[in-house]
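Priority: medium. Attachment 1 of 2:
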């Protein structure tokens, strides 16, 4: 199903192919003896229920001991976020009417009003991934509100006056989707909206897997995601190669904390493997994010 591709891209880009460790930890200490560098790396997830998540003290302690926080996008940079606003809109702006027939468009209108409580016309010019993210937030059965691990880490760093550095811009991230066929994105959005139960089950499964820390289960989830493998080069591998060139330079003279989507960590082209190839030692730090409820 096309929507599974879009779901996985949105959420990790949240998970990756797991070949590094059967334990599938998401928190690590990274050291390089010759360069005298120490950093912490946390794999994050961009959409969880706040009531089901507890950030471990171990993570906050590591962040407190760090002089800078390195993230995918610096959400504290207002100028950068403002520059990304234009990239939130899809060209052409009437793309939904172009790629959906009248019956499909009417169905999307109905579901948008019913599930999100707003007319499709208010969202239609936005990129498919942004519209999809609104539906995903609605699909997650949270007792309170949805929650982003990345944003929580950034907020904590800002409260402690820790320097925040972005590896790439929000505008660049959005424009990355221009390399994916627009008709495929629209089809994925339509399936996501019209097949709510299937999408919701997949979303909850991925969230619970992240929270549980069950490496074997996480590995099985990823092995089933054949539809994502072809896109991993664009959304994960190429970005990892760019980041691994930047990180050693950023680590110089400063204790660092890196927080990126967990999918960037694993696999032959994952950050962990790429850092090891540069002589870094990776030490897993076991963490628990709280009890996982059965949905």
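Attachment 2 of 2:
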């Amino acid at each position: 199903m096309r929507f599974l591709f879009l779901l996985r891209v949105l959420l990790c880009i949240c998970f990756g192919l797991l070949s590094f460790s059967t334990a599938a930890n998401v928190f690590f200490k990274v050291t390089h003896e010759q360069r005298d560098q120490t950093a912490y790396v946390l794999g994050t997830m961009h959409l969880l229920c706040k009531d089901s998540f507890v950030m471990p003290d171990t993570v906050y302690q590591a962040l407190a001991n760090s002089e800078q926080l390195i993230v995918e996008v610096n959400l504290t940079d207002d100028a950068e976020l403002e520059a990304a606003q234009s990239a939130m809109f899809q060209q052409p702006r009437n793309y939904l009417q172009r790629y959906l027939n009248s019956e499909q468009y009417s169905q999307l209108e109905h579901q948008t009003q019913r599930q999100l409580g707003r007319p499709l016309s208010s969202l239609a010019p936005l990129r498919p991934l942004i519209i999809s993210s609104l539906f995903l937030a609605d699909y997650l059965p949270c007792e309170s509100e949805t929650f982003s691990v990345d944003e929580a880490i950034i907020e904590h760093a800002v409260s402690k006056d820790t320097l925040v550095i972005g590896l790439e811009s929000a505008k660049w991230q959005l424009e990355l989707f221009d390399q994916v066929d627009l008709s495929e994105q629209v089809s994925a959005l339509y399936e996501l909206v019209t097949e709510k139960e299937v999408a919701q089950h997949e979303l909850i499964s991925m969230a619970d897997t992240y929270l549980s820390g069950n490496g074997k289960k996480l590995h099985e989830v990823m092995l089933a995601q054949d539809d994502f493998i072809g896109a991993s080069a664009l959304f994960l591998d190429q970005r990892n190669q760019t980041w691994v060139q930047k990180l050693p330079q950023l680590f110089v003279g400063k204790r660092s904390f890196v927080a990126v989507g967990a999918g960037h960590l694993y696999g032959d082209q994952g950050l962990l493997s790429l850092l090891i190839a540069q002589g870094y030692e990776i030490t897993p730090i076991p963490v628990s994010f709280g009890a996982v409820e059965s949905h």
